[in-house]
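User: tokens in, sequence out, please.
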């Protein structure tokens, strides 16, 4: 049993490359498999009615569109991220919010393309991503069963013409998410409904760590958690993220579970045979 652990940096770097590198270091030391960012073309992604809304930021008061551009990295930064991750021996990828961002990320040798929950109904984007030949991971937060079915049917159909694989992540899109809203048992529902088509995982934004380990017992083989240097940092996603010590504990717990999980076959283990002989003759 092997769990794929994604450390979601997202936009918690606040546009600062020093913070990016510290977060990559954090994920590498903890033993995560990959760090993930978010890539957008704000001119495309920001709704028209929000573009001119004013917002207070650490860099002063500016329009929401200016703020979103301020948070985005370009090729120079991603080239640096690519080199730094190779040096730290950890993979990286990104959630793409539009086709421009998809094509940008495809310049790099990433292990998968992530489609965020917000884009689950963006059929052209899912189509383009699945035609890229990369594995696809799709989060299902705030989505109806019919919407998930439609996305899965499209991805499943496209696998006939490509060698890529796709995975679904159960998710609650609130940051941070309340325990009573997590509905972890829906991981079982997704497995029962789509197990013949894809892997199922869990993307969490809650305060707790044990919920991610519990997700594995329910069948998740991919765990994604947002990470931060400090939850008190500025930014909308910080509160739903895991700090360094928490990430180390979480990854250690998952790796221990991988070892302890075992198999379903009833009967004594190899180490029990001598004890059985001694106690039962």
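Assistant: Sequence out:
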């Amino acid at each position: 049993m092997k769990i794929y652990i994604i450390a979601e940096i997202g936009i918690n770097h606040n546009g600062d490359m020093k913070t990016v590198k510290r977060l990559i270091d954090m994920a590498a030391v903890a033993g995560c498999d990959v760090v993930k960012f978010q890539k957008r073309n704000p001119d495309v992604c920001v709704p028209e009615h929000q573009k001119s809304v004013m917002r207070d930021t650490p860099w002063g008061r500016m329009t929401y569109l200016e703020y979103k551009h301020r948070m985005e990295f370009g090729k120079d930064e991603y080239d640096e991220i690519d080199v730094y991750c190779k040096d730290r021996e950890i993979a990286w990828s990104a959630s793409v919010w539009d086709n421009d961002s998809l094509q940008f990320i495809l310049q790099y040798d990433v292990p998968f393309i992530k489609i965020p929950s917000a884009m689950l109904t963006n059929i052209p984007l899912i189509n383009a991503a699945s035609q890229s030949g990369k594995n696809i991971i799709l989060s299902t937060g705030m989505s109806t069963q019919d919407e998930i079915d439609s996305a899965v049917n499209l991805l499943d159909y496209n696998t006939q013409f490509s060698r890529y694989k796709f995975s679904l992540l159960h998710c609650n899109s609130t940051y941070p998410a309340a325990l009573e809203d997590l509905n972890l048992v829906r991981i079982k529902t997704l497995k029962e409904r789509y197990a013949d088509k894809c892997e199922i995982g869990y993307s969490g934004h809650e305060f707790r760590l044990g919920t991610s380990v519990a997700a594995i017992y329910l069948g998740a083989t991919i765990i994604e958690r947002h990470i931060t240097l400090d939850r008190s940092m500025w930014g909308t996603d910080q509160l739903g993220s895991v700090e360094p010590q928490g990430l180390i504990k979480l990854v250690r717990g998952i790796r221990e579970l991988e070892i302890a999980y075992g198999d379903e076959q009833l009967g004594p283990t190899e180490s029990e045979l001598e004890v059985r002989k001694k106690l039962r003759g």
